[in-house]
């Protein structure tokens, strides 16, 4: 038995050494690849800028370069990729701004973003959330950063830095034309828990579904409970398939108070409550406990990916609400 335990321990130790070595090899090779592409992009841009007819000259140069480099070095230097390399350098003209934790495919996607600020934010979220390239593409398409209040209002309380409005649950595959019950949506969210937590944001860990809370006189069931290790607090989520109501706000306020009293540990920060609803009456938000309680939130959600215009309108609606409820001093 002892021999078997020693063998298992030896295997575990060797496995760790191999895994760490492979990770170092990947990191080094990835850095070398990115630096090579960056240097190639720099040479292309500098050469192009010396040409008199930049657009024509640059296009012809890339086409000829592609043929020569492909003959010499094989795949990876077609005209399309040379354009990507050129865009990469244009987006990141300072090498020290390139975070080598991300892959070339990440940078091909991020380089298409319009501003330095937006590129920097997506890089930071990619690294913190460990996003793969499919997740990155999806989050850019759904304007992930634009839906976070913190991105435009860094002075707001920490809890709001993780709250979005609206939330997009297109990954559930639920058709918007067919009415769905709260239970069906809740079940679908649990079945797609990895995608759901990615959409919620960084630091979320799943705790329970329909968590049973018992008081001296009554029983209550909270739809979804998470813990956020950045905020060091529990997050309660109540899912509604209708417009936000006084009853929903009052119920969540009660749940949060109850959770703080019965479940919160001594080292935990005060519990957050989030109501996910299809629509919000901004007058109701303004004159309810939501306006003054920094631990209660209400956000819209969509079960489908809105088109660009609708998504922009949804984001702008919440931005206007934030400005009205948080006037400058």
From TrEMBL:
GO terms for molecular function: endonuclease activity; nucleic acid binding. Keywords: Endonuclease, Hydrolase, Nuclease. Pfam families: DUF1016_N, YhcG_C. Residues 14-144 form the YhcG N-terminal domain. This is Predicted nuclease of restriction endonuclease-like (RecB) superfamily, DUF1016 family. Signal peptide: none annotated. Residues 160-313 form the YhcG PDDEXK nuclease domain. PANTHER family: NUCLEASE YHCG-RELATED, UNCHARACTERIZED PROTEIN YHCG-RELATED. InterPro entries: PD-DEXK-like_domain (IPR053148), tRNA_endonuc-like_dom_sf (IPR011856), YhcG_C (IPR009362), YhcG_N (IPR041527).
């Amino acid at each position: 038995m002892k021999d078997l335990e020693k063998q298992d321990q030896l295997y575990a130790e060797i496995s760790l050494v191999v895994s760490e070595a492979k990770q170092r090899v990947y990191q080094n090779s990835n850095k070398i690849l990115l630096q090579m592409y960056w240097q190639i992009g720099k040479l292309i841009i500098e050469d192009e800028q010396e040409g008199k007819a930049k657009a024509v000259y640059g296009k012809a140069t890339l086409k000829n370069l592609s043929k020569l480099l492909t003959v010499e070095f094989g795949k990876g230097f077609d005209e399309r990729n040379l354009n990507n390399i050129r865009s990469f350098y244009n987006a990141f003209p300072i090498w020290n701004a390139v975070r080598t934790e991300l892959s070339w495919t990440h940078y091909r996607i991020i380089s298409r973003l319009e501003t330095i600020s937006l590129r920097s934010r997506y890089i930071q979220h990619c690294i913190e959330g460990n996003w793969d390239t499919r997740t990155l593409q999806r989050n850019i398409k759904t304007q992930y950063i634009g839906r976070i209040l913190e991105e435009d209002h860094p002075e707001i309380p920490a809890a709001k830095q993780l709250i979005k409005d609206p939330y997009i649950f297109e990954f559930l595959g639920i058709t918007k034309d067919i009415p769905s019950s709260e239970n069906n949506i809740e079940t679908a969210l649990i079945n797609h828990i990895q995608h759901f937590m990615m959409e919620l944001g960084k630091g979320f860990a799943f705790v329970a579904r329909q968590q049973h809370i018992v008081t001296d006189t009554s029983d209550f069931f909270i739809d979804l409970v998470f813990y956020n290790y950045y905020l060091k607090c529990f997050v309660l989520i109540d899912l509604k398939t209708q417009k936000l109501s006084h009853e929903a706000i009052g119920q969540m306020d009660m749940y949060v108070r109850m959770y703080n009293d019965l479940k919160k540990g001594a080292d935990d920060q005060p519990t957050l409550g989030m109501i996910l609803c299809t629509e919000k009456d901004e007058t109701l938000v303004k004159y309810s406990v939501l306006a003054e309680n920094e631990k209660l939130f209400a956000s819209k959600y969509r079960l489908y990916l809105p088109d660009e215009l609708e998504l922009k309108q949804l984001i702008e609606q919440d931005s206007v609400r934030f400005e009205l409820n948080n006037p400058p001093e």
